[in-house]
Amino acid sequence: MIRLLRLFIVTIFIFLQVGYLFAQENVSGGELNLTQEFKRAQKLAFEGNREEARLICAAILKENPKYYDARILTGRTLAWDKKYEESRKELIRVLEDDVDNRDAVLALIDLEKWSGDLSKALFYCDYGQSFYPREEKFLIRKIKLQQQAGLESKSLQTINDLLEINPGSEEGNELFKKHTSAFSKYTLSLKHDFEHFSEPYVRRWHITSLQLSKRNSWGSLMGRVNLGDLISDGEGFWSKDVARQFEIDAYPRTTSTAYMYLSYGYSPDNLFPQHRAGAEWYQKLPRKFEASAGMRFMRFNGSSGAKNVFIYTGSIGKYYRNYWFSLRGYFTPKNSEVSRSFIFTTRRYLRDAKQYVGIELGTGTSPDEARGNVADFSTYKYDSWKVKFSYQDQLLEKRLTYLLRAGFEKEEYQVNEKRNIFSFSLKLSYAL
Fold first, then answer.
1. Chain center to CA of 145
2. How confident is the model at residue 199 (pLDDT cuts 50, 70, 90)?
3. Nearest to residue 258, comparing CAs of 167, 325, 172, 136?
């Protein structure tokens, strides 16, 4: 209970810090009168009075040289007038002072596209993604530039990246539909999970999964076969009883800001639950928050008969620049009590949305992990805490994605009796 309280305190502190940073990011660069003058300049620029708008921006910058919005508007209006070199100087000057200014980078992408330098426009797309790897505006511009440059296969990869971030993106789905070869593209994934403990006896737990996924205009569909093996001390790499499980998952989009997760699995063998199902609703919220709510169902067949287990889950996530924070809870009613487990995850994205390092802190057992998908309901009674580290990157012109995870868990398997559990996971995904 004390560990759980500490986890809550740490999580709340992190979210408060993120909220504070987000608020700081949006503080106006000038005083109220400068803001009003800038809005007047914007109105004039959009009405076609660009020279007058630039004069107002010059007056604002004279009073406050760090009013970057005024310099960016100057740069954009110069680009509209095809004065590309002057525009470039203004926008680069912003980046010299404020290296991750999102609006300046977006303006430079547009400028280089209008000037006809597609390679430089793509460079600024990658530059922007290095700071904001999940920013849809960068991805949409990148897709259109890749298509304009004839980079069709790379364009499809970027479309897939966009739809992984936001399956409900209307523009992303439109771009997907227009892609001539989009409906023939699949992704093949191979994953192996391994866990080991030695108390009160030695056990090695292997799950190998083979998955084929396809993106459709309505969302994603994937089929998966899991092979599980629980190996006792003295046995070889495989035991004589390899269990099978067959699963199908879908991520249909419902609106431009919402999508669902639907899943069903069946196993004819005793190592996995006979039936496994899941449903969850994901909703994107303002300021790059995302929330979800759903449930998982498992039917276990044991010596004492069948047992149906319902697990309720929900999450809240937040993207801040190139960081992602998420807190998820699982609640399992049993008799008059409710078993609870919580997982806090943070990722630091590096080059883009496909390359990251991550850390996960948690208590209890998750039904969405390899060890939670076994025909042993007693795992949900155990008090435990864990930490996991992950790293993901791409190879072969970004067609091959690999994910490495390693973890350690301290689990109380009996009253006052604890054991150490070590885990490792490798996943390879190849775009066909």
1. 24
2. confident
3. 167
The DSSP 8-state label assigned to residue 412 in this structure reads E
Instruction: Find the Cα–Cα–Cα–Cα dihedral 243, 223, 360, 343, rounded to 10°.
Output: -90
SS3 329: strand
pLDDT the model gives residue 252: 92
Q: Which residue has the tokens 């928050």?
A: 289
- 329-370 pLDDT, tens digit each: 999 887 778 888 899 999 999 988 889 999 999 988 777 777
Taking a C-beta distance cutoff of 8 angstroms, is the pair 142, 158 a contact?
yes
User: How confident is the model over 90-109, as pLDDT tens digits?
Assistant: 999 999 999 999 999 999 99
For residue 338, what are the contacts with CB-CB under 8 A and spacing of at least 6?
331, 332
Residue 307 CB partners (closer than 8 Å, separation 6+): 299, 300, 377
Instruction: Identify the burial level of 282 via C-beta atoms within 10 angstroms of its C-beta, where 0-12 means exposed, 13-18 middle and 19 or more buried.
Output: buried
Can you tell me which residue has the tokens 């300049």?
A: 41
Which amino acid, 140? I
